[in-house]
Specification:
Length: 73
């Protein structure tokens, strides 16, 4: 039984066709550095410039992506 592949190279990930998917940085992507704030709504003291996950682990209450989108944690 042989597996048929389209135009993708061996071992390559086929392209994803998703009109509703969020870009990595708005979803807090795995390693998108942004600005971490001590208060909700991206106010208060700037704690660090890390990704959203590490901002939350360091006690941050909100995070602003490089594109300017604020997310409460």
């Amino acid at each position: 039984m042989t597996e048929s592949r389209s135009s993708t190279a061996a071992g390559a990930t086929p392209p994803i066709d998703c009109a509703e998917c969020e870009p990595a940085e708005t979803a807090g992507g795995p390693e998108v550095a942004g600005t971490c704030y001590s208060a909700r709504n991206c106010r208060g003291k700037v704690l660090n410039h890390r990704d959203m996950h590490n901002c939350k682990l360091s006690g941050g209450k909100s995070w602003r992506s490089p594109s300017g989108i604020c997310r409460n944690l």
